[in-house]
Every structure is written in C-alpha cells, then in structure tokens.
Amino acid sequence: MKKVIVISAHPDDETLGAGGALLKHLANGDEVYWLIVTNVFEHQGFSKARVDSRQEEINAVAKAFGFKKIFNLNYPTMTLSSSSLIKMVPEISKVFL
User: Fold this and answer.
1) CATH number, residue 73
2) pLDDT tens string for the chain (97 positions)?
3) What's the domain range around 10?
4) Fewer CB within 10 Å, N side or C side of the chain?
C-alpha cells in the first residue's frame, strides 16, 4: 500500500488534474490524502451561504473519493503569488511529517 497526496490550489483541481490517477490509487487500496491550499471567506466578499456550501462541496468530494484525510492551508482564494511560497512551502512540508 502506498500513501498518496494530491495538492490542489482550489477544490476541483484534484479532480480535473489528477482524478483518474486518484481513482487508480484508490482502486489499488492506497491511502489518498488531499491538501487544499485556498479557501473562501466572508471578509473577501463571499456570502456565508457560499462559504458554507463550498465546505459542503469539499466534504462531498472527499467522501466520494474516499480520501483518508483533508488538509487545509486556508490561503484566501485568488491571492496566491510567488511571495506566498515563502510561508506556504514549510506549511506543506509539515503535512509530510
């Protein structure tokens, strides 16, 4: 059994970019984890309903795939830049410990 992690900037990137590979790993009995880099927040102008529905969508996708665990870095969506990497890389590294 392998341990596999898919890292997606936004929810849906995991399915669009690696969905087939994830399904293959799951079919092989591998443990699959999901790390989501961004999130949406009300202070960004998203409604509470949208913030809540996004989390419901994430939970539904996680259940459908059968991810062992989800990690969230909670960077505000649409704000990633090369300057984010200085903080982000160590946060991603912690997931692997």
Assistant:
1) 3.40.50.10320
2) 999 999 999 999 999 999 999 999 999 999 999 999 999 999 999 999 999 999 999 999 999 999 999 999 999 998 888 888 899 999 999 998 7
3) 3-95
4) C
